[in-house]
Amino acid sequence: MKSRAFQPTSDEVAAHARALRARHPRLVSIRTLARTAGGRPILGVIVTDPDACSSGQQHVLVTAGQHGNEESSRLVALALLDWLVSPAAAETRRSQRIVVLPNVNPDGAEADSHGNAAGLEPNLDHAPGGAQTPEGRAVEIAAEREQPELYVDLHACGHAGCSHDMVLYPWTLNYAEDDNLCHAIAADMLAAGERAGVPARLCPPLPGRYSGAPGRPVYPFLIRNRAGQGVSYYLAGTFFELYRQFGITHYRHLVRHLVLRHARPLVELVGAPESVEFPVRRSGETGPLLIHLVNYTGGMTRPIETIVPLRGLSLKINAPVKSARALVAGRRLVADRNGRIGLPDIREFEVIALTTTGMKPA
Ligand SMILES: [Zn+2]
Known about the structure:
five-stranded mixed sheet; 9 helices; binds zinc ion; 3 domains; 362 residues; Aminopeptidase; Immunoglobulin-like; six-stranded antiparallel sheet
């Protein structure tokens, strides 16, 4: 399954850009450069320091998403914009005027297609007579206006989808004929991936550049066996090595789902985003449970400046509840007949002291 976080839609890209402008109105401005056949705007996001001397500035143009199915190029463009408005980029904003087109081909992005609505590739649409597509035209308008000294065009490794871009496939192997050169390229790609902290694995050569992810491996990734009354799972090969090395969150979710399939936890947190940490501790051997809720939910910019308070969360307790108390809010909580306890609004943190039958009261 593809992860939504890795493939921003056209609406999400535009919303992200507009949120940056709202948050940093002095640093960020947005122009609609053209509209696609589908009526979607092609946005140019300009970041610079308005107090800098404009005549001394270098002009940089960055385009992403010319190929709609290369999702991670859009993601990289948004990450670049996030960095450009951060304090760390103050010197860059002084010395440069940067124009980012984070989604040149929004129709292609929505259709998950390489080309635009007419099937044309914007990056090949720069004939001497001028671009024929609105997408190609948008890039030309930005280039004509900005006269950039540096132009960067972001692409990704093709139709496999961005979640697969986490693995660098050395598809170049299919095109280079010299074996030694192939191995040198593959080794360079692996080293670059490791330096960048990207999970990098050498895969067998693919049949073509846009062939998608390699097919079913010979050995299954996950094996489920019955063992007496229970079930055992075997996760093959490099699962835990990869998790230790790269901390891939999907792996953590997978293990969590496997556990939850078979074991019902005493306490479940309902309605919370992933940004809430939820450790459950017991006070002494038989004392009450102390359920900690730590809220790391912030806006899109990093570092997080303000915490977004959370409303409407609840706990589901899979045992008869004797008493529950929110220690920060300072009030008693009541469980309904299904063991559900509505929680008070949570700002940075809350601690719930809970006793069920068989525990000593708090
Ligand atoms: Zn491309």
